[in-house]
Amino acid sequence: MELKNNEMERLYAETFHSIKEGTILKGKVLALKQDGVIVDIGYKSDGFIPIEEFLEEEITTLKPGTNIEVYVENMKDSDGTITLSREHATKIKVWKALENALRDGSPVEGRVIGKTKGGFSVDISGVNAFLPGSQVDIKTHKDIKSLIGEKMPFKVLKLNSNVSNVIISRRAILEEERQKKKVETIEKLKEGQLMIGIVKNITDYGVFVDLGGIDGLLHISDISWGKINHPSEFFAIGDEIEVIVLKYDEEREKVTLGYKQKKPDPWSTVDEKYPVGKKVRGKVVSITDYGAFIELEEGLEGLVHISEIDWLLRPKHPSKYLSIGETVDAVVLKVDKEERRLSLSIKQLKLSPWENISQRYLVSQKISGKVKTITDFGAFVGLPEGVDALIHISDLSWTKHIKHPSEILKKGQKIEAVILSIEPGAERMALGLKQLEPDPWLHDIPERFKLGSELKGKVLRITDFGIFVELEGGVEGLIYSSEIIKPASGSIEDVLKEGDVINVRIIKIDIDERKLGLSMKNLKRVEE
Fold first, then answer.
1. Is position 399 within any domain?
2. Which of 54, 199, 501, 504 would bridge with 58, disulfide CB 3.0–4.6 Å?
3. Coil, strand or helix: which one is 356?
């Protein structure tokens, strides 16, 4: 028994002499206490690591028997316990790894833990490193906050063990990766080659696509066979797209890309596929003041001019009829392959209002409408079918001499009239207001008014060529200037005014011209 004890003391003595402060040893966890972890390092006394040196997630994974590396800090504690450090051991190990990485250029992995002045703080296995803002990315990083918490590789730029200063770069890693990709991409670059790329930047004139270490320009004119206002209508930054290499300048490393060239030009066969008169269906993609553009297929759009949307003489704004994204039917009016223009019509698929009118109405039929416009020669009446019909000034009254249609009609007035003529080809329709009543000159007037009769009448208008007088029943007659009794001095206006009642004699009845001639002279004389 004594021999055995001596042997154990000899072994412990050898172990003691081999363990020195400042060395790193491998130990085995014996127990987890509230204030720390007990570790067996092969010495008669166990080692102790304060609990503060462990992260919460590490503590949950530690259990008796777990092997860990430790740093010997103190061999002479008062209670005989050896003070160990897990954190110090880790840092020494990491620092050696950082020195090797600086020497051979190998990457190290770290986690961005926060923003600091001029850059970021990065944790590399317990060692705090500084990532300058200029070394974060190849280009300016817009979303800086998104980096915090991310784990990624870095390149060691500078070490100073005296002040534990570590400067690292993410940009150097990205540049190396980009250079490797560039070499691989250039080997595949040739005109006509289809390639996958990432949209890197969008401008007014085109899109820059990262093909893998080298950028190519997709010009706006090479995005679509159809019309395009801005590249953002097709792409967004970060999109993965397939493009075709149109041209590669090896000396300048300039790559020109195409997107529309992946498909045949639809305009090359437009005259064969869309002949004049063909009915087509498409989607409204754009609305302007002068019409709407209809997409018949990708890259092929036709214009429906505002005049071809509705049969109205004054059509409303195209947006009142159509909305973007709506599917509509149309008919091809004109195809210009060279100018890449396609004219369409929507209204041609509908029955023309004049064709509708010619089928619905007959001459002499009575209809209703609203006065839309009044001119010197007549009034236009709007009909429910969307056309305007004319009432000529001569068709307003059988018996009155009308100087202007506004004497009878007002704009917006709802009236009835008789259809006098319909000309669908010329898009004309004539109405009559006086035709609502029988022509009094055929029977009534010849019977009521006799040549030589003396009557009373009301002065309506005094003109240079005579005086218009209203007789019984609203019939008008004209006193010829030669038949006016003029005052001895002055003018006739001095003794007569509109509204005065005077005596007149009928001296002429013209049924064909529908005129009554009157006289103020010799009222007592009986004509032969």
1. yes
2. 54
3. helix
